[in-house]
Amino acid sequence: MNYVYVAILIGVSVIAGFFYFMSRRQKIVRKLIEEKIQGQTVIMPTEHVIFRAVESSEYSQTRGMGFIALTEEFLYFELVLLKLEITVPTNKLKGAERVGQLKGVSPGRNMLLIKFTNEKGKDDSMAINVIDKDQWIKAITKVSKK
Fold it and tell me: Can you give the pTM of this predicted structure?
């Protein structure tokens, strides 16, 4: 009977440790994005998002939580757990729209598709879930036309 209690205690400790780690990591990534946008004209402030897919990915899609922000100069995105950062100068943004699917990823609701030219000069896009898709579409459309 004592082993059951020990196993339950270890399990609860591991779960609590994981949530503590995730909370700390989210704060760190948010702070990194906020440091990048410091001193710039912010159009869309740092927002917690769910990253769904990137068009140029040749392998299985990386998905997860991340943070995104838009300034007059750049669109910044970074995943919380994996080392995936996307920084796009606003003059490389091509627009944004709602989509239901990208590269086989279809979460059952519309995603925000952000179109851009990547660092290799190729057309690319990424799909994310944000709180206010319409506001992001308007903001990205506005800066991409400058």
Answer: 0.80
